[in-house]
Amino acid sequence: MLNPHREQEYRNGDNKWEAMILAQLDLTSTIQLNNGVAMPRFGLGVWQTDNTTAAASVTAAIRHGYRMIDTAKQYGNEAGVGRGLAAAFADGSVRRQDVFVTSKVMNGDHGYERTLAKFEGTMRRLQLDYLDLYLIHWPVDGLYVATWRALEKLYRDGRVRAIGVSNFDVQRLQVLMRSATVQPAVNQVEFNPVMQEHEMRDFAAAHNIVVEGWSPLGGGQALSNPVVGLIAQKHHKSAAQIILRYDVQSGVVTIPKTVHEQRMVENADIFDFALDEQDMQAIAGLDQNRHSLWYDAFGWYGTDTDYGMATQKWPDSAPDYDD
Prior knowledge:
- The active site is at residue 75.
- Belongs to the aldo/keto reductase family.
- 40% of the residues lie in helices and 11% in strands.
- The chain has a single domain (4-292), classed as NADP-dependent oxidoreductase domain (TIM Barrel), CATH 3.20.20.
- It is α/β, with parallel strands linked by helices.
């Protein structure tokens, strides 16, 4: 387990010691959250995955050594993730405490009482007694402070091991933290070569908040970047492996999504090499501070923005969302 403060030193250039340690990371490596909980640095995301596929993907990922699964009610596949976890635990190869499971509060479920009530549905679908990490999926303006109070209660009651946020900018995170009695442990944001969140990462490092990155491959756009391609040739790795290694080596927890078992194996094959300082600087120079093309097309900050439920409410999960 690495100290996040030493990782900040690495990003600031004092990397001789850190580069040696980072080169020794593997799929079981963890980072310590601000409450002492160990969070894996690498996991599986399941956005845009139906329940049947999610179940198979989760079981396969765990079989191949993954120890973190990231889902959300808004994805419409918590039930499938729950089935995949149950299958993995049933064969005795892993225990519940070996797998770090994250879910998130859906936009339409914000508010203190409603968040607490809807959390029970998430747990039922996932077939779990506790969550490792529960996040506010999007900061619904006017409600996210009350929602955070509900997460604090769930944390104090032992229902979740850590709490955090997702898609919060620095300003909204500052508002939340002014009234919080439990500081966020994680902020999950988009992170890839063209969107590197420097302001948020600096703020998070200063407040001991771990940054977790979704869409690490930029929706596939980053895979064709010629700079990434040259570095891939240099290390005899794929473009995806170079980008994912950059994430981990930058101290960002990463959760690439795939439903293909071979791709899961390839994505995780990033722990037998290290990017040098020249590689790191070259990829850092690709930053455009630009979100994915679809990001700004939706009003993410309102309670009526149930994008996931509107577009990804798979037929086999529909009854699960009547709670």
